[in-house]
Amino acid sequence: MSPRQHFDAEWLRLRESVDHRSRSSDLLLPLQTDWLTYGWSRILDLGSGTGSNLRYLAPRIATDQEWTLIDSDASLLAAVDIPEGVQGIRCVHGDLADEGINLIKETDLVTGSALLDLVSHAWLERLVCAVETARCGVLFGLTYSGDLQWFHVNTHDTDHSETRPLPDDHSDDTLVRQALNQHQLLDKGLGPALGPTASAVAETLFKAAGYRTWHRPSPWRLGSGDSRLVRRLLSTWEAAALEIEPSTEAHRIREWADRRREKVDSGRFSLVVEHLDLLALPPDRQVV
């Protein structure tokens, strides 16, 4: 990722299990079909961090994988945990705007997780052009799509309890969500970010290039077992809202965050954060 958007290893560790359970498994079958049909083996993971996307995808596709992981944070690359049975891993310390795009020509499949909402339209156009030239596939997971909703849970068992939307902070939830979505549009290092529109914009661009596309929801469904992650989210959302909203709303935003922390501490909550997964595959072609 770029120097302006830093993700520490603790944050990546907190979200990994949630990311993996949230991904859309519907996209694996068409991906596997093309993988085997065209004899693919080379995978480029953009903004790889410590390798969460590698650990998710490697066991779910055919063998004979050659991975290239690229990130601008050398410390994250140094902490990559390679899953058992995977060989041929190359880590590249570089920028997605330069090395990231240039590496696509050596690739069969481009992947990225929680990435598209951070990139600009101009960068995405460059990526689509490079992908089309290389005739490779693309799988982007967990792109934030702009909606989140809190629920009250009557007991600590979020899997079996009846839930209902919390009525008490509805207007404040809307205020923070709108501020967060506006903050998502700020430059994260690759130009003005696409934010919640990113996955839809990417699908449109790939379709225009003649690609076959699949778009599936991959929501985070968080409960009391994810409290550490949710507390981290609350701090991030509070800071983003304070940055966007006028100072007259600061007290309201801080009170909102405090009330939500109390709810998280009680364990009587669930939270849905909407994301989308996008698969784009080249036009059908005759196998030689």
Task: Please describe what this structure looks like.
- The protein has a single domain, classed as Rossmann fold (3-Layer(aba) Sandwich), CATH 3.40.50.
- Helix 9 (227-244) runs antiparallel to helix 10.
- Residues 156-163 have low confidence and may be disordered.
- Strands 1, 2, 3, 4, 5, 6, 7, 8 and 9 form a nine-stranded mixed beta sheet that branches.
- The protein has helices spanning 9-22, 28-37, 52-57, 74-78, 96-102, 121-134, 170-183, 198-208, 227-244, 250-266; strands at residues 42-46, 66-71, 89-93, 109-113, 137-153, 163-165, 212-217, 220-222, 269-281.
- With 288 residues, it is an alpha/beta fold.
- The two termini are 37 Å apart.
- Helix 6 links the parallel strand 4 and strand 5 (137-153).
Largest sheet: 9 strands, mixed
Unreliable segments (pLDDT under 50, ≥5 consecutive)? 156-163
Radius of gyration: 20 Å
Total beta strand runs = 9
CATH architecture: 3-Layer(aba) Sandwich
Helix content: 40-55%
| Helix/sheet category | alpha/beta
CATH class identity:
Alpha Beta
Give the averaged pLDDT, no decimals: 91
Q: What would the CATH topology be?
A: Rossmann fold
What does the overall shape look like? globular
Summarize the helix and strand pattern as letters.
HHEHEHEHEHEEHHEEHHE
In whole angstroms, the N-to-C terminal distance is 37 Å
Our count of domains comes out at: 1
- Tally of separate helices: 10
SS strand fraction = 15-25%
